Amino acid sequence: MNDEREYFTVEQVAEQMQVHERTVRNWIAHEGLPAFPIGKRGYRIAKSDLQAFIDRRKIRPAHDTEKES
Description:
Strand content: 15-25%
Number of domains: 1
Order of helices and strands: EHHEEHH
Number of helices: 4
Largest sheet: 3 strands, antiparallel
Strand order of the largest sheet: 1-3-2
Number of strands: 3
Oligomer: single chain
């Protein structure tokens, strides 16, 4: 395993993103946030996976998504 990788718990991600832990668990279960299970209910989320998830969900300005005619 790469020692340079940093991992977060569900609680740490929730605190960083200012959301409830249930929201983070929903992201894992239904919205594609990569995580690996630890024990019965715990998860670890790699810092790089969290950043990629955030980047995919960013709202782009309208002028980036509209095509000119």
